Amino acid sequence: MVTEETVEEASLSPILCPIPKAATLIGRGVSFIYDAIATGKIKAVKSDKRTLVIVKSLHEYVSKLDDAVIKPRPKRAHHRRKKNPQPSIPPQKRVVSPTPDA
User: Fold this and answer.
1) Which of 3, 37, 53, 94 has its CA 20 to 30 A from that of 45?
2) Neighbour-count burial of 41, counting CB atoms closer than 10 A to its CB (0-12 exposed, 13-18 middle, 19+ buried)
C-alpha cells in the first residue's frame, strides 16, 4: 500500500542520476564513473539512450571504501623576526672613469 509518506520519501531521494551528477556526488571524475560501471563497482541502467547510475549503488560503493589514514604533518620551525632589522642598502652605482688617450 502506497501512503503519502512513502511518496514524499521517494520524491526527496532520487533513485537514478546521470553520470556527471554521480561523479559530483562522490567527488570523482566522469571517467572514473564509467570505469566503475564497467568493472561492476557501481550499477547503472539504460533509459532510452541515457545511462543512469543507481544512486543506491553509489552509497554501497562509498560504504565499502577504507578509512583514510593520514600522518600528521610535522610542525615547521617558527622563525622569529629580528627586533631592529637593518635597512637594506641599495647597490652602489658603478662609476666608469674615462680612460686617458695615450
Assistant:
1) 3
2) middle
pLDDT tens-digit map of 28-74: 999 999 999 999 999 999 999 999 999 999 999 999 999 999 999 88
Closest CA to 37 of 47, 22, 24, 49: 22
State pTM to two decimals. 0.59
Greatest Cα pair distance in the chain: 116
Domain ranges of the chain: 10-63
Q: Tell me, what's the pLDDT at 96? A: 67
Q: 84 exposed, middle or buried (CB, 10 Å; 0-12, 13-18, 19+)?
A: exposed
- Least Cα distance to 52 among 78, 75, 25 occurs for 25
Q: In whole angstroms, what is the distance from residue 64 CA to residue 86 CA?
A: 60
**pLDDT surpasses 90 at 1:** no
